[in-house]
Amino acid sequence: MSERFDVVVVGSGAGGGVVAGELARKGRSVLLLEVGPHRTAADFTRWEAHAMHDIWWPIRMAMPSSDPSTGIVALVAGRCVGGSTTINTKVALRATQHEYDKWREASAPVNDRGEPLGPGDLDPYYERVAEVLGMRERTDWLENTRMVSRGFDAVGAHLEPVISYTDENCMKCGSCLQGCPTNAGKSTQNTYISVPWARGQLELRAECHVDRVLVEQGAGGLEARGVEYTDADGARHTVDAGAVVVAGGALNTPQILLRSGVPNPLIGRHLGLHPAMFVFGRFDEPQDAHRVYPITAHCMDFQRDEDGGFVVEAITVQDPIGFTVALCDENGPMWGRPLVDAARDYRHWIGLLLMVNDDNNASVTLDDEGREQFWTDFQPVEIERREKGARFCRDVLEAAGATRILWSSPATTHMQGGCRMGSDPATSVVDSHGESHEVRRLFAGDSSVIPRTLSANPSYTIMALATRLAEHLDADPHGYLQDQRAVVA
Ligand SMILES: Cc1cc2nc3c(=O)[nH]c(=O)nc-3n(C[C@H](O)[C@H](O)[C@H](O)COP(=O)(O)OP(=O)(O)OC[C@H]3O[C@@H](n4cnc5c(N)ncnc54)[C@H](O)[C@@H]3O)c2cc1C
Ligand code: SF4
Fold first, then answer.
1. Was 88 annotated as part of a binding site?
2. Nearest bound ligand to the CA of residue 31
3. N or C: more exposed end of the chain, with fewer CB within 10 A?
């Protein structure tokens, strides 16, 4: 006989970590399955290549589905307990009315009164996340950020401090992408998960790959019964649950639903990439932009599509591998002597990170043998936003005194969509609470449900939506969990 839990959660990042932690705190029996390893602050070092191997997904690529000149986008995500929150830079932004309007137009997610989802619906959940993670404004800029800020002023724009989920133990070491060694950076691993796990309230199984959700024909239609997963030793297991929450991230959740035979043709479609690129300026004096809290400031002046459709973050350069591996100049990707010369000047470069609104034209598919594929289909208006944003970054850096400009090839860390939520099965994969339109007891609880790409960093909104989902599951309006609460110490 297989084990049974109230809820099985697949993936422990911004979505899954919050759903699992909140439900465990409410006394529900929860199994949290994560394909990556369980690492904590004591394991994290600045060793870039090691972190990429140990706690990142191998870099995956989204390929152009039609016009090859629109370029390839590298996809970066965390694969460890805490998911991408373990390696992210912890900038916290709420969705704006502009985003809710886009969501309504795309798939019309609604609140419990049937009204379009809006700020009043998510604000209480944002507050709850802020209470768990702690948030503060990062006004502790170093001189390199202040200098770039003068460049923004000179071109008539405005650089402002970010709000982030980092505490005062942040030593501005710059190694957030390798995992925070001081626990100043709040991931779901060191907050939502670690506390109930240490108290024995949450069953966490790392290095377990969920192959599929077990979907069966029930009296009222298709139902999720549990999941099948493979552990680190290659052994297969099945687990039963009252509800299954898939939260493998926007690249993986669609794959899991496809492998499980969920019959919705929109799975994997409307993926948003929020593509990004670095624009680097070389300054005469050393800047040491790798030894900062990577994102202390951002310029939100062009956030809305009608204002330009991009956000710029300051300041950061990645460590040497990340800096050099994707460096480009007027001749394309750099190599040989020019690349060596740029790397020799490593301490002199300052990076601005440009993130561009996209129109959710990307997709995730599986080929005939079940292998993952990622596709882009950028339209001229999206390319134009990227070019406009890159020109702006160049102007800012030059106004601040940069004597040479380089840039990186496109990448993203903000994949969203692919199982969009909404009120109509014709335009969405899951309903406004994240439950599959076709399979009862099956929920998506991560970035995959976001109907249209947020114009800023998404994790705070993913965590707010996950908090809302945990509350919904615990209220159990359909009797899925049959009120079998765990005995909580
Ligand atoms: C380098 C970097 C910097 C970022 N900076 C910011 C920032 O400053 N602010 C911000 O708001 N956002 C930031 N983000 C984005 C943010 O972290 C993500 O949007 C968010 O974590 C996505 O949440 P998620 O739950 O959808 O996926 P994730 O957090 O990626 O979690 C998904 C988890 O599911 C696991 N998983 C996948 N498939 C399976 C399977 N089959 N079985 C078991 N487990 C599985 C994965 O290994 C992963 O741990 C950043 C991301 C990165 C990578
Ligand atoms: S910069 Fe701060 S938050 Fe980032 S890894 Fe270092 S101590 Fe942690």
1. yes
2. 1
3. N
